[in-house]
Specification:
Blueprint lengths: L10 H11 L2 E5 L6 H8 L2 E4 L6 H10 L11 E4 L6 H13 L5 E5 L16 E5 L15 E2 H5 L7 E2 L4 H10 L10 H22 L7 H13 L7 H8 L8 H13 L31 H6 L4 H6 L1 H22 L2 E7 L5 E8 L4 E6 L6 H14 L2 H4 L4 E6 L3 E4 L5 E4 L3 E2 L1
Parallel strand pairs: 1-4, 1-5, 2-3, 3-4, 6-14, 10-11, 11-13
Antiparallel strand pairs: 7-12, 8-9, 9-10, 12-13
Helix pairs in contact: 1-2, 7-8, 8-9
Amino acid sequence: MEIKNYLPRIGDALLAKKLKHSGAVLVTGPKWCGKTATSSVAAKSVVYMQDPDKAKGYMMAADTQPSVLLEGAVPHLIDEWQTAPVLWDAVRFAVDQRQQTGQFILTGSAVPLDNATLHTGTGRISRLAMHTMSLYESQESNGKISLRDLFDNNPIDLTPSLLTVEQAAYAICRGGWPASVRLAPEDALALSRDYVDAIIHQDISRVDGVEKNPKRVQLLLRSLARNVATMATNTTILRDFEGDEKSISIPTLDTYLNALRRIFVIEDQPAWSPSLRSKTAIRTASKRHFTDPSIATAVLRISPKHLLEDFNFFGFLFESLCTRDLRVYTQANDGDVFHFRDKNGLEADMILALNDGRWAAVEVKLGHKQIEEAAENLKKLANKVDLEKMGKPSFLMVVTCGEFAYQRKDGIFVVPIGCLKD
């Protein structure tokens, strides 16, 4: 189906690939990240479960004869399927009966309750996680440096980036929401604040039908925002939280965090556990991230101007922006993004681990002065990994907000985020 003013997504090719080998594909991700548009482009027919004019009829059909909602040219899209969880089992059954690939696309911006479906869908329904738009997808990165080329050991030339520090600050606050990319700055920043308001007052309670205290949700989001791109524990979050609200318990905190995960508001970055030459203990705590850095700035009511006046916090949010983008680019190369830190403080902001065994280590530095320190850190990590078991890293890279991409004499790449793509 044709979508007006649609900006191509990296997920387009991933969805097409999955439809070739799966009977159905479940596309998940935060609300407003573009799941419906991307899925509609690939679909030949569609049912929008939240269409106000038809929602009541659709729900009646789901309750009485769900197979009616599966009729249509394939791939057949069912948008926001989780409003009628019975559709999961109906799709699984239809895939079994038809014995053909590329039959259905399901989209969902919330994970239904664990007991809402009878079957997992294993072997019938493939999954595709979508993120908000990377800078390459929003056309703010020139894409001159491909992650795939770096993994394939292709050299790079001196390459300029047109993304300035000021533009990076704006991109963080605006976010990668497709609807905001073409808006005027004032309207785009307001959109991210509207997103946070919807989380606080509606979405987090709707996901499980349990009413959440909006004040507590706001305080929790503010605490998570202050601890973005760190390994802050639940105890740390709770201590920060208690500065304003003393009655919350650990179980309640867990309930709120799980609800935020189920509506794809937070996406923590897991720790990498390689084989090391020494027996140094590895920290296993995840790093705190929102699915989009603009959630942090919106809940704290921070503008691009504020970021430019606080480079320390800007650095944490810039790392979160880069983490989002490299998640998108690494996913396109069949991999995942982790972080590494040992008990002695040796760390890498990101480990890009492909499913074929290749890996790369990345440090994120907003300013030029930190590049040398980051490069030395990466070399120490590479020397510490047991190469016989893990293999040599495909590359080491410092991601910056600088003006040029280049390769240092020691082989380490220095690449502005405004040059990267998948």
